[in-house]
Amino acid sequence: MSEYTVAFAGNPNTGKSTLFNLLTGMRQHTGNWAGKTVVTAEGYFTHKEHTYRAVDLPGTYSLYSNSADEEAARDYIIFEEPDVTLVVLDATSLERNLNLALQVLEITGRAVVCINLIDEAKRLGIDINLKRIAERLGVPVTAISARNGIGIEALLDQVARVATGEFKAEPLKITYNEEIEQGIAELIPMVEQTVGARYPARWIALRLLDGDHSLLASLRAHMGRKGISVAKEVARHGVTACH
């Protein structure tokens, strides 16, 4: 039986932890992220022939560096490289919630978008075109009600497709204005030279253009090699590219 890791990401109050608890039941434990006061929960669940280690990331509105929660969620997705990042959205607030989904897709294509509270959306007269959203995002999209156990089997089938590599994602690539794209293009070779091909060079370049010094600190901690001095040069170059 194969084992895969699934990270649960989502805005606060989307039902992310409700889904996590539904799947893991009593097979879970809580702790703190290394070096942080942020609480994490981990558990296990099985689906068909696979076992999944589930990690409930802190509820966040973004993957920037506005809080310890955001840094913890960001670092886990980048450096721990889960087999699947399950992004839980609120069906009644899709426009706001999709911001986080797009940020996840800039980091990894190994993702499933889970639209929760679908029963509440229907009650409010909200019609969601799952097929169209999936086509635009380039990853599987499913609708569920974690509270009422609706759509869970179909969701887990999609998680399995991504985890096993059966589904080959082509995640949406966001194109920024010409100045930003030029800065990204200049930075990517330097980022790749510094961190190698393992980490998402385009996303790291974008964050460096934004002056995200917290990301540099995380890179230094996880790389543990002299290459971080090049990252400082990259950061300086990024500031220049922005102006």
UniProtKB/TrEMBL annotation:
Domain of life: Bacteria
PROSITE patterns assigned to the protein according to its UniProt record, in alphabetical order: G_FEOB (PS51711)
SUPFAM superfamilies recorded: P-loop containing nucleoside triphosphate hydrolases
Domain FeoB-type G: 3-165
InterPro entries with a match to the protein in the record: FeoB_Cyto, FeoB_GTPase, G_FEOB_dom, P-loop_NTPase
UniProt-listed Pfam families: FeoB_Cyto, FeoB_N
UniProt-recorded name of the protein: FeoB small GTPase domain-containing protein
